[in-house]
Design goal:
Layout lengths: L3 H28 L34 E2 L7 E3 L6 E5 L7 E8 L7 E9 L3 E5 L14 E8 L10 E9 L4 H9 L3 H10 L3 H10 L7 H13 L11 H20 L2
Parallel strand pairs: 2-8
Antiparallel strand pairs: 1-3, 3-6, 4-5, 4-7, 7-8
Helix pairs in contact: 3-4, 4-5, 5-6
């Protein structure tokens, strides 16, 4: 007969192995959070900036509607159908809203490529606006996205609006080589983030998060974006422009914490 103590020791050893394995997974995950480090940032041209950004929710909530992207620089992607995401304040949920993408045409008006009607929901919303069989966004071109929430359909002046800019670039060979060795979304997010491919990194971290949330890796990525939002010359900017940038940085940080 096998002694009872043998079974007890066996169970303890199994628990130790499981505990060690879980700890190792947590350590690896924590050490692998995405770090967004764009090498060279392209400022959004002044003629593309507008005063459409909001500073509140429909009922005055502190964190406004915010596209999860830089408002001061052009974000990059290698995808023809990138995933976009934005934060909706709690007081702005269950409202009609629109998502739009425009192509910037040299010496011409921006060309509307996509206009989608949606229903807002609080927290993080995301959207891939093109299907697999569509042409989508093209390398070498720049685009703008705009998100609008209609707080009161009878009062357009009360709409919540935020915008961001996109540049589609070709896949760097070094990035492709690293991606070929990546085994999960955390690794892919790191590769994209380190290459300055914001929208691709964002897509990968959102795959790890619960619905309407950023998740731990996504929260870290968004805080990294906030670090790069202010230009080195921010103190030389007009007060209104400087305050807008500082407010967006604060909003991104608050969203990273509240939607984690």
């Amino acid at each position: 007969m096998i002694p009872i103590q043998w079974f007890l020791n066996k169970r303890i050893n199994i628990k130790l192995v499981i505990s060690f394995t879980l700890s190792l997974v947590l350590i690896v995950t924590s050490a692998s959070v995405a770090s967004y480090t764009p090498a060279d940032q392209k400022p959004v041209p002044k003629d593309r900036k507008s005063d459409a950004g909001t500073t509140r929710g429909c009922s005055g909530e502190d964190i406004p509607l915010t596209v999860l992207a830089s408002g001061n620089y052009v974000g990059r992607t290698i995808s023809s159908d990138p995933t976009f995401a934005w934060f909706v304040p709690r007081d702005s949920a269950s409202k009609s809203m629109k998502f739009m993408i425009y192509e910037w045409v040299p010496s011409g008006k921006p060309k509307e490529l996509r206009k989608i009607s949606l229903q807002s929901s609080s927290g993080i919303m995301k959207l891939s606006p093109f299907s697999e069989n569509e042409l989508g966004l093209q390398p070498g071109k720049e685009y703008s996205l705009q998100v609008v929430i209609h707080c009161d359909p009878d009062n357009p002046s009360g709409d919540l609006v935020d915008e961001a800019n996109i540049e589609v670039v070709k896949m760097p060979a070094t990035v492709q080589t690293k991606l070929n060795r990546a085994v999960n979304s955390v690794e892919k997010a790191n590769i994209y983030a380190e290459a300055g491919l914001w929208y691709n990194a964002l897509d990968e971290v959102l795959k790890l998060a619960q619905v309407s949330k950023l998740g731990k890796v996504g929260s870290t990525l968004l805080k990294d974006l906030a670090k790069w939002e202010a230009p080195k010359t921010i103190l030389e900017l007009p007060p209104k422009e400087r305050e807008a940038i500082e407010k967006r940085i604060e909003n991104l940080k608050q969203i990273a914490d509240s939607a984690r």
